[in-house]
Specification:
Layout lengths: L1 E5 L6 H13 L8 H6 L3 E7 L2 E10 L2 H10 L11 E8 L8 H11 L6 E6 L3 H9 L3 E8 L4 E7 L4 H10 L1 H11 L3 H11 L8
Parallel strand pairs: 4-5
Antiparallel strand pairs: 1-2, 2-3, 3-4, 5-7, 6-7
Length: 205
């Protein structure tokens, strides 16, 4: 399998069309608005066999309405504020399954997305998808809820390691400092760190 990871802005029109067709073939995504949602994605992953696109996955930038809806249905509405990126649109053509294509593409995407919290959803009966999510650090969150065609389960992966947190703060340092300066306080930085890492920080007032 020949894997390719790209930002949507780096993709040709043909690549975007091929990606969309495979996502739609999966039967879990509506065609309406898909092109615009793809262009907002963080990263798209393509898996090729002999020049043929056989598998896709993405890190999607989800709308706030969608995030709030998913976390609300899973009975975890308070966690919604911490998530904007979703691992999804995963599909492999039936003739190419059981070759680890989705697993490899997902791993590459997550290796390139260590600067953000991620969430994902899967059917409660999709054991293969659950194994992939759990293998790469996702944890079950909330309770199952009705989806378009089946019951869904929400999974989340937080920035938890020192290196991940360091990367996140470096990439967002300018924004954090501007916001802290506006409030004339380090409280903003402290609250952001707590929310992002779930780490108890003491000694700052």
């Amino acid at each position: 399998m020949n894997p390719v990871i790209k930002k949507p802005s780096e993709c040709s029109l043909q690549e975007l069309e091929d990606f969309a067709e495979l996502v739609i073939e999966g039967g879990q995504v509506a065609r309406a608005g898909l092109e615009n949602r793809m262009r907002r994605a963080k990263l798209l992953a393509f898996g090729y066999e002999d020049g043929k696109l056989v598998g896709v996955v993405a890190i999607k930038k989800a709308s706030w309405f969608y995030v709030r809806d998913v976390f609300g249905k899973a009975n975890e509405p308070d966690q919604a504020v911490d998530y904007r990126y979703e691992l999804g649109w995963g599909f492999t053509r039936p003739d190419y399954r059981r070759r680890g294509i989705t697993t490899e593409l997902s791993q590459m995407l997550m290796d390139n997305s260590r600067d953000c919290n991620l969430f994902g959803t899967t059917g409660t009966g999709n054991e293969a998808s659950k194994r992939i999510l759990e293998k790469y650090g996702f944890e079950m969150c909330g309770s199952p809820y009705p989806g378009r065609t089946e019951f869904k389960q929400l999974y989340v992966r937080r920035l938890t390691t020192g290196s991940d947190l360091g990367t996140w703060f470096l990439k967002n340092a300018d924004l954090l400092l501007r916001e802290a300066e506006k409030s004339n306080s380090y409280r903003y930085l402290l609250n952001t760190f707590r929310r992002t890492s779930k780490t108890r920080v003491t000694g700052v007032h």
